[in-house]
Each structure stands twice: as structure tokens, then as C-alpha cells.
Write a structure and sequence with these properties.
CATH architecture of the largest domain in chain A: Up-down Bundle
Number of helices of chain B: 8
Largest sheet of chain A: none
CATH superfamily of the largest domain in chain B: NADH-ubiquinone/plastoquinone oxidoreductase chain 6, subunit NuoJ
Structural class of chain B: mainly alpha
Shape of chain B: globular
Radius of gyration of chain B: 22 Å
Oligomer: heterodimer
Shape of chain A: flat
Distance between the termini of chain B: 55 Å
Order of helices and strands of chain B: HHHHHHEEHH
Largest interface: A-B, 53 and 62 residues
Strand order of the largest sheet of chain B: 1-2
Structural class of chain A: mainly alpha
Number of domains of chain A: 2
CATH topology of the largest domain in chain A: Methane Monooxygenase Hydroxylase, Chain G, domain 1
CATH class of the largest domain in chain B: Mainly Alpha
Number of domains of chain B: 2
Mean pLDDT of chain A: 85
Radius of gyration of chain A: 25 Å
């Protein structure tokens, strides 16, 4: 195994402990607690009021725009990382290129803002 | 699997550990992938897709591509799956109808999947047949680093080992600068399109 993968062994152990901890705690809970479900107990809790309708409802399309904007700026962030790693080497050329890249995306944000899509209704 | 047994007999413990991890994550990925297409609940399918994408991210780490792995987690698990879930919640009024997910076009779906698998497997084998993964993947990637930034001379640039993130940055800013800027226009178009569709109501 290379040193590179050896350093990821820590990540693997961390992830394994996290999964095992959740599994043990939940497993122990279900092992110890009595299980006597009734129709009233399994009903979704709505502050003491009986829930009305289906638990899945159609969401507003506005939320989709927020999700899509999140994707776009996530992709933008991904492109910024390699640039930031080699910032000094690229110099002003890199700075101008990245400024153009971000400016074009900010245009989209400004458009969405202007059209009132950023208001959380 | 045969190579794994061979390593156990030769006593190369660390390589064995690496291979066991590889097989474990490959198995988890494939099983989750099967669950994506067999589960009745479409929301569960989207959540199984998270496991598949995480498994692919782990395989990227095994290949020494840290940048691809982090991008996989950040963009696909963090953003694309969220977008998928929003898409599901938008298009389906009630998600209790389990029968809708299971279709009668299984044969056609299997055919398309098989063709896609064949095409990708062929192109991967054809493209990377002779490539051997080095012992330490990080050593291989060489990045030119100036010793002193004040001296503007190519002779003072030497090669030293760096992460693959820097190597990808070099590729973008040396060879693919125009596609890089075109990506921003593509993202802009996607955002404007979404705003236009959302405003129609």
C-alpha cells in the first residue's frame, strides 16, 4: 500500500467507527425497548393533531431554482479549487480568466435576483 | 480475486488490505446500484444512488484521483442528488403509488444498460489497457513550481511532486481555457432556463 492510500486509512477508520456507532446505538435501542405498535402510535406526530392527507405533497417550483443555483455554484467552487492551488503560477492571466468565469455566473445570479426568484416565500 | 489469494500466500499484508477494501467498496457500490433499479420507492432509489456515488468516490481515491473523489462528493452527492429529490417532489404529487416505478419495459431497459455497459467497458479497456497504476500515485504527478516568484525565468522552474488538483489546474489553464470559459456560459444558460420555467408557473 502506498503512503497515499495509507493516509486515507484514517478516513476509512473514522467512517467505520461512525457507521458502527450509529448501528450499535440503534441496534441496542431496538433490542432493549418493548415493541407494541398500535395504529395511533405509528401515526405521524403533528403536534397532537391528526395528520391530514398524504405525507408526500408536491413542492413549489421555486425550491427547484434554489436547488439548481446550488448545483451551479457548487460546480463553480469545484473549478476554483485547482486555480487556487496554482494561483501564483498563473498570475494576472489566471486572475482575469477566473474573474470572467465568476462574472458570467454572477450575471445569472443577478438575473434570478432581478426576477424575484431569490425571495423565500 | 486470484491476485488477492496470491498476495495472501506471498504475505504482502498491506496490498491484501488494500484489495479487501477495494472489493468491499466495489461490492457495496454494485449492490446499491442494483437496489436503485429494483426498489419500489423512487425516493429510496435516489437515496441508494447516494451510496453508489459515494462508492465511486472511494474508487477514485483508490486510483489516486483525490480531486475527482472530492468533486464526486461535493457535486454529485451534495448537489445533483438534492436536485433529483426536488425533481421527484415536483413531478409526483403522491409518491405512495409504488406500481408506477416498476415498469413493463424491463427488457428494453436491460438492453440499453447492456449496450451502454459494453460501450463503456470497451472504451475503458481500449483506452487504459497498458496503463499501470504506480506504487505511489502522488509521486507520479509532476507540477512545475517556480523556486522564486520574483525571478521571471523559465530556467528557474523545476518539477516537484504535487497533488492532482494542481495538475488539473495546469491542464485547464494551459490547454482548455476556452472550454473552461464556455462552461460558465453553459451554467448561466441552465440558471436562466430554470428561472424562466419557474416564472411561468
Amino acid at each position: 500500500m502506498s503512503d497515499f492510500l495509507r493516509s486515507y486509512l484514517t478516513v476509512a477508520i473514522f467512517g467505520g467507527v461512525a457507521v458502527a456507532l450509529v448501528g450499535v446505538l440503534l441496534g441496542l435501542g431496538s433490542f432493549l425497548r418493548p415493541s407494541r405498535p398500535t395504529a395511533t402510535k405509528t401515526m405521524a406526530y403533528e403536534s397532537g393533531v391528526d395528520p391530514v392527507g398524504d405525507m408526500w405533497s408536491q413542492s413549489n417550483i421555486r425550491y427547484y431554482v434554489f436547488a439548481l443555483m446550488f448545483v451551479l455554484f457548487d460546480v463553480e467552487a469545484v473549478f476554483i479549487f485547482p486555480w487556487a492551488m496554482r494561483l501564483e503560477t498563473y498570475g494576472y492571466f489566471g486572475l482575469v480568466e477566473m474573474a470572467i468565469f465568476i462574472f458570467i455566473l454572477v450575471l445569472g445570479l443577478a438575473y434570478a435576483w432581478r426576477k424575484g426568484m431569490l425571495k423565500w416565500v | 480475486m486470484i491476485s488477492l489469494i496470491a498476495q495472501i500466500t506471498t504475505g504482502d499484508d498491506l496490498l491484501v488490505a488494500q484489495n479487501i477494501f477495494w472489493w468491499f467498496f466495489a461490492l457495496v457500490t454494485v449492490l446499491a446500484g442494483i437496489k436503485v433499479v429494483t426498489t419500489d420507492n423512487i425516493v429510496h432509489a435516489a437515496l441508494y444512488l447516494v451510496i453508489v456515488l459515494a462508492g465511486v468516490a472511494v474508487q477514485f481515491v483508490f486510483l489516486g484521483s483525490e480531486f475527482a473523489a472530492v468533486t464526486q462528493v461535493l457535486v454529485y452527492i451534495g448537489a445533483i442528488v438534492v436536485l433529483l429529490l426536488f425533481g421527484i417532489m415536483l413531478t409526483r404529487g403522491s409518491l405512495g403509488d409504488d406500481q408506477l416505478v416498476d415498469t413493463e419495459r424491463r427488457g428494453m431497459g436491460a438492453l440499453v444498460a447492456l449496450l451502454l455497459f459494453g460501450l463503456m467497458a470497451f472504451s475503458l479497456v481500449d483506452g487504459f489497457e497498458d496503463v499501470v497504476l504506480p506504487e505511489d500515485t502522488r509521486n507520479l504527478i509532476e507540477v512545475e513550481v517556480p523556486i522564486d516568484t520574483d525571478i521571471d525565468d523559465d530556467e528557474f522552474i523545476r518539477t516537484q511532486r504535487g497533488s492532482d488538483t494542481a495538475a488539473i489546474g495546469d491542464t485547464i489553464f494551459e490547454s482548455y481555457i476556452v472550454p473552461f470559459e464556455a462552461v460558465s456560459v453553459l451554467l448561466l444558460a441552465a440558471l436562466i432556463g430554470a428561472v424562466v420555467i419557474a416564472r411561468k408557473e
